[in-house]
Amino acid sequence: MGIEKLTDKQEKQEKIVTMFDDIASTYDTANRVLSMGIDIQWRKKGCDKAFEILGKKSLGQITDVATGTGDLLIYWKEQASKNGVGVERYVGVDPSVGMLEVARGKVDFATFIEGKAQALPVENESSDVISISYGIRNVVDRVEALQEFNRALKPGGLVVILEFTKQERRGLVDKVVDFGMKNILPRVGGFISKNYEAYKYLPDSIEEFLTTEMLAKELEEAGFEMRYTQSFSMGISTLLVAQKR
User: Fold this and answer.
1) 83-117, pLDDT tens digit by residue?
2) Strand ordering across the sheet containing 127-133
3) DSSP 80-113
4) Which residues contact 162 (CB under 8 A, 6 or more apart)?
């Protein structure tokens, strides 16, 4: 039974990685269109809040997990400069070869490594910050991944998560948002990427995911202390910042 469950998890993870390989070339365009560019502000907010909490002007390494096309690393560098923070190394980790090919073509200051969140290819206590934007939902072995984040972070280091957490949608505005996520988003994303199933997966995966409170609890169980949470755009996106004890 245990072997069967493990195999099911592995197969699911491989399907998700293959899906991202397929949409890698159009991923950035789809993101900007679907969010109308507002996701850039969400990402910058996460970077700024991390620098504020750490309160340091010199960091050794920022590791971005499920880095995709490397978008968040660009904002890490931009916001580090604006906040007067020096960062020695930027590392991007992703299991999708297709995504990493795009990332290497547009981000020339970071090191990119093929790898999974639940088995990070970085040393113990090597990172001041580990970030993951809209990727923890796609990690099948999420608990193991959070434990890996703890292992790879320096004492007092931060994990910064941006994610579409599950919401209870009750009011009229919530219903409008829900309709857009389930009906408009898959059509627009599918048109841009020519892969409707990939963008149908997004709202489906949100429905199957955790609430903000549940994710915060998992972080605490993995050895973190919650330092900050904020929801954006009527609860569509959530920022969580937790510190290694």
Assistant:
1) 999 999 999 999 999 999 999 999 999 999 999 99
2) 111-114, 86-94, 58-65, 127-133, 153-163, 237-244, 224-232
3) HHHTT-EEEEEEEEES-HHHHHHHHHH--SSEEE
4) 42, 43, 46, 131, 132, 133, 134, 237, 238, 239
Q: Which helix (H) or strand (E) holds 61?
A: strand 58-65
Domain that holds residue 167: 2-244
Q: In this structure, are residues 92 and 73 in contact, taking their beta carbons and an 8 Å threshold? A: yes
Instruction: Give residue 163's region: left, alpha or beta (phi > 0; psi -120 to 50).
Output: beta
Pairing of strands 111-114, 86-94: parallel
Q: Which two tokens stand for residue 183?
A: 């009906």
What pLDDT digit, counting tens, does each position of 156-209 carry?
999 999 998 876 656 555 565 565 566 666 676 666 767 767 677 666 776 777
CATH code: domain of residue 172: 3.40.50.150
> How many domains does the structure of the chain reveal?
1
Residue 33: exposure state from Cβ atoms within 10 A (0-12, 13-18, ≥19): middle
> Which has the closest alpha carbon to 98: 188, 203, 198, 9?
198
The answer to whether residues 101 and 130 touch, using CB atoms and an 8 Å cutoff, is: no
Using DSSP's 3-state secondary structure scheme, residue 79 falls into helix
Q: What is the pTM of this model?
A: 0.84
| Cβ-Cβ contacts under 8 Å for 168 (sequence gap 6 or more) | 174, 211
